[in-house]
Amino acid sequence: MSTTFQLNGETCRFDGDPMTPLIDLLRCQRFMTGTKAVCREGFCGACTVNVEGEPVLACLRPVGLLEGLSVMTIEGASRYDAEAQLLQAAFERVDAVQCGMCFPGMVMSLSKFLRETPRADRNAVKHAMVGNICRCTGYERIVDAVMECLAEAHSAGGADV
Ligand code: FES
Ligand code: FES
User: Fold this and answer.
1) Is 85 in contact with 93 (CB distance < 8 Å)?
2) What's 2-73's CATH class?
3) For residue 106, which atom of ligand 2 is closest to its CA?
4) Where in this chain does the record put each 2Fe-2S ferredoxin-type domain (predicted)?
5) What lines the ligand 2 site, CB under 6 Å?
6) Which atom of ligand 2 approaches the CA of 100 most closely?
7) Which three-class secondary structure state does DSSP give residue 21?
8) What is the pTM of this model?
9) What is the DSSP secondary structure assignment for residue 6, as one 8-state letter?
10) Per-residue pLDDT of the chain (161 residues; tens, 9 = 90+)
11) Does 78-157 carry CATH code 1.10.150.120?
């Protein structure tokens, strides 16, 4: 069976078991290793990608359910998503990254949050991170970085939600 979808803006055709988890297609066949496979059980958020603009866990999403949809990974977001780029720069600036395993998923979850909630406070940022576990527990610096991004978006005139 064949499944065709958009992957970072390009057509991706997959001929194989439709129950193949998206994470395996990305990492093992497309060699997009930015998306991390950590728990593979839906608990950690490290494998988060965007499907139709919504954060989705690639370890739980079978490729067969992606027919006709648009998938963005961290590789695509780094190129095309302004909020993801802002976050990546801020994480580097505040030296938030430790082992780095959680960060691709964090960026994919938080870029949508940043886009849609430009006036969020620190508490709202923490809530937005609930599905993304950092085993190195550098949460406060991650929140600092997101707060910097919100301030930047604010001064650039982001819309209120
Ligand atoms: S690897 Fe998918 S949620 Fe942990
Ligand atoms: S930096 Fe190591 S898991 Fe987050």
Assistant:
1) no
2) alpha beta
3) 4
4) 1-77
5) 97-102, 134-136, 138
6) 1
7) strand
8) 0.93
9) E
10) 899 999 999 999 999 999 999 999 999 999 999 999 999 999 999 999 999 999 999 999 999 999 999 999 999 999 999 999 999 999 999 999 999 999 999 999 999 999 999 889 999 999 999 999 999 988 999 999 999 999 987 776 654 44
11) yes
